[in-house]
Specification:
By secondary structure, the protein is an alpha/beta fold. It has helices at 14-17, 31-46, 60-73, 99-106, 108-116, 128-148, 159-169, 174-177; strands at residues 4-9, 53-56, 80-82, 153-157, 188-192, 198-203. It is built from eight helices and six strands, in the order βααβαβαααβααββ.
Length: 205
Amino acid sequence: MDRLLVLVRHGQSEWNLKNLFTGWRDVDLSELGVEEARAAGEKLKAKNLSFDVAYTSALIRAQNTLKLMLDELGQSGLEEHRDQALNERDYGDLAGLNKDDARKKWGEEQVHIWRRSYDTNPPGGESLRDTGARVWPYYLTRILPDVMRGRRVLVSAHGNSLRSLVMVLDKLGPDAITKLEIATGVPLVYRLNADTTVAGKEVLE
C-alpha cells in the first residue's frame, strides 16, 4: 500500500516579499510565489507522483499554490478540502507590521522569540503550540485516515502549520522545532508505515 503524504509550503506571498507579518491576513502569491508553486508541481511530476485527494487552508496563497501544482501535474479538479485548521499561525497584533520595524520597537531577541519559540505567544496571537493544537486534531481525524487507507495525499499549507505537522512526523521536541525552517515551494515527501510512523522522507529541493 502506498501511504503517501506530501507537504508543501505555499510560494512566496506578496507580504513575504514586503517583509510583513502575515498570519491569517488573506494575501495572495507574489510573481516569485507563482513560479515557486509551479516549480513544486514540476518536481512532483518529475518523481511521477500523483494524488487522490488534497488538503489546504482557508487562505488564498495556499489554495492558489495547490491549484498551480495540480495544473502542472495535470490533476486539476482533484478532490480538495479547505479548512482553517491548516491556516498559518495567527500573528495577532504583529500582522501587517514590517518585521524590521517590529525589531526596532521590541528588540531583535523578543521578535525572534515570538517568531521561533514553541510556546511564547506574540501579542494577541498564537504560539506554535497553539497552532499545533488545531493542526494535530485535523491531521489525526481527516488527513491521516486518508493516508492510511492508501490514498495519496497532498497538503498545501503554511510555514507554521506545516512545522506543527513535521514536529510530529519527525518526532522533534520543542527545542528542535525552533530551529526548523520550511522553505517555500519545496515538497516534503513522506511515506508512512502501517503503524503511522514515517518509513521514509525525501525533500525535493
